[in-house]
Design a protein that fits this description.
It is built from two helices and three strands; from the N terminus they run βαββα. The protein is an alpha+beta fold and 74 residues long. A three-stranded antiparallel sheet has the order 1-3-2, covered by helices on one side. A hairpin with a 2-residue loop joins strand 2 and strand 3.
Length: 74
């Protein structure tokens, strides 16, 4: 498995082209940065999930509220 950080959409496209002989098995867009994860074999255990930006923001708000509740109980 090969995990590579990228910073721009142009760099992302360059990496996809450069590693086109591998399978893109994961894309991570997290607080720490954006990452592409490549493998020599396809990952057949992944169920793709697509959410809109609004849905994602709603989930983030819910997580924040739950964190606040849990921290208040601690």
């Amino acid at each position: 498995m090969l995990t590579i950080q990228y910073y721009t959409t142009e760099e992302r496209e360059q990496l996809l082209n450069k590693f086109s002989n591998k399978f893109l098995i994961e894309e991570r867009n997290i607080t720490e940065g954006n990452y592409l994860v490549f493998s020599d074999t396809p990952n057949t255990n992944v169920l793709p999930v697509v959410v809109t930006q609004d849905e994602f923001e709603t989930m983030e708000e819910r997580v924040k509220k739950l964190e606040d509740v849990l921290l208040a109980k601690g």
